[in-house]
Amino acid sequence: MKIGLQIPDFTTPDGPGRLGADLATVARTADDAGFEYLAVMDHFFQIGVIGPPEREMLEAYTTLGYLAGHTSRARLLTLVTGVIYRHPGILAKMVTTLDVLSGGRGALGIGAAWNDEESRGLGIPFPPVAERFEELEEALQICLQMWRGDESPYYGRHYQLERPINSPPALTQPHPPILIGGGGERKTLRLVAQYAQACNLFPGPDLARKLDVLRAHCDAEGRDYDEITKTCYFIFDVGAKGEKAGQVVDQLGNLAGMGFQAAIGAVAGVWDITPLEIIGSDVIPAVSAL
Question: Are the CB atoms for 136 and 68 separated by under 8 Å?
Fold first, then answer.
């Protein structure tokens, strides 16, 4: 079982003037502690489960580039990019740039998007869900084509690229891994089976069924189910002094028993740094063999 840190909230105790320095400290600490992934949300407004839309929110790929310069081992990704936010040709270039400048640590986390409030607020087109999934599949095809070095034209229903050059190429071969977020059984998990190296599911009573559905899609596509890294969103709360670390280890053990290989999510009290250090000393070694 591997552990990943997602940073969903940029409202820090010291305020925006110290945000860059504080964020760098969090990233370095997680990297040194053995976190496998370092992720941020791809939103422009804060989401309702965390706070009001006016609450501080950083643009994801600028932030990942900044974090790349302050870390050396963790894989960097969004959890997850909304397909409507960036043209897929540009998105492929952005993830490639992140991969090259981080020494081969970039990844593409992507999904069909859901936050119509921020789209309306910033003037981003927000088509119906069926169209967003069509765009998601075309975006996956475009990214994979560009990462293969194939410059031939791409003519899809939603995107047309005359010459999708991608130079320099990504360092990660055959390409930066693709993680698709979401548990939709008919469309999302089918796209995982067709295109992705990882999925990300939200915890809930239906997790085991979601994995069964993914396995069925893999069988239908002729894909090896075991090739796909199964990740689950997880809130890490080890307590201020590590008093809950054992509970976290047990919870992660349960996920591993279901077939998950990674847990990625927010860490309670992350700006205090101590919880990250406790996870590094008490949780990561305990779950590394699961």
Answer: no
